[in-house]
Amino acid sequence: MQKEYIAHLTDVTKRYGSGPAQVTAVDSINLSLSKGDAVVLAGPSGSGKSTLLHIIGCIEKPDRGQVIIDSIDTTNRKLDELTALRLNKIGFVFQSFNLIPVLTAYENIELPLLFKQNEKRSINNRVNEVLDKVGLLNRKKHYPNQLSGGQQQRVAIARALVGNPAIILADEPTANLDSKTGAEILNLLLKLNKKENITILISSHDSVVLERITNIIHIIDGKISVDQ
C-alpha cells in the first residue's frame, strides 16, 4: 500500500543575509513524513532545526525547493492561501507556549476555530473535548499566569490539536520545563500521536525525547547528517 505523505520536501534551501555575511540555514534537504509518524529533528543550537520547522509550517518560504503539505504544493501559494493552510492543516507548539495572557485557557484554544468561523456550539464542544484530552477541563477558565508551565504547554497542545491538523510541529516543547513536567508533556504528545494518528515532528536536543522517539533526523549545519 502506498504511503500517505503528510509532508514531502524536495531540495529545500533557505538562506539569510547576503554577500560574505550570508548564512545557509537549511541546505538542500529532502524529507518525507507519513501519516502517523513521530519524528525528532535533533541537532545543536543554530543547526537549522527551527528554520526547517518554520518552512514545513509555512511560516517561512524556502529560497529553493518544493514543500508539499498533505498533498498541497505550497511553492506558488499566495500569503492568504498559506495562512489558510496553516489554519487547517498544521498545529504549532512552541517552547515559550505563546499563549495570549488576557485570554483564558478556553479562549486561547478557541481562537483558531473563531478564525475558521465555525458554529458556536461546535466550537464549544470541540474546545471542551480537547481540554479533556489534555487533562485541563477543570482549568478552562484560568488565565496563563494562573497555570503552571506544564499546564500552559498543555493548553498550547490543545490549541494545536483543536483544528484537527494533519501535522503538529513542536519546537523544543520541553525546553522550558523541569524534567518531570517535560516527560509528562512528551507522554501527552506521543499519546495523541498514537490515539489520534496525527503526524508529530518535534525539534529537540532533550535526551529524554531522543530516548523515547527512535525515528530521529539529525541536522548539522543545515544538512541532514547520514553519519549518525
* Model regions low in confidence, pLDDT < 50 over at least 5 residues: none
H-E string = EEEHEEHEHHHEHEHEE
What gross morphology would you assign? Answer: globular
Question: In percent, how much strand structure appears in the residues?
Answer: 25-35%
- CATH level 1 class label: Alpha Beta
Overall mean pLDDT score? Answer: 92
In which order are the strands of the major sheet placed? 6-7-8-3-9-10
Q: In the CATH scheme, what's the topology name?
A: Rossmann fold
CATH superfamily: P-loop containing nucleotide triphosphate hydrolases
The major pleated sheet works out as: 6 strands, mixed
Number of domains: 1
CATH architecture: 3-Layer(aba) Sandwich
Structural Rg = 17 Å
Topology, number of strands: 10
**First-last Cα distance:** 29 Å
Explain how this protein is built:
- By secondary structure, the protein is α/β, with parallel strands linked by helices.
- It has one domain (37-62, 76-224): 3-Layer(aba) Sandwich (Rossmann fold), CATH 3.40.50.300.
- The protein is 36% helix and 25% strand.
- The protein is built from 7 helices and 10 strands.
- It has helices at residues 49-56, 79-89, 105-115, 120-133, 149-161, 179-196, 207-212; strands spanning 5-16, 23-34, 38-42, 64-69, 72-73, 90-93, 167-171, 199-203, 216-220, 223-224.
- The strands form 2 sheets. The protein has a 6-stranded mixed β-sheet with strand order 6-7-8-3-9-10, with helices on both faces. A 4-stranded antiparallel β-sheet has the order 2-1-4-5, with helices on one face.
- Strand 4 and strand 5 form a beta hairpin.
- The chain starts with a strand and ends with a strand.
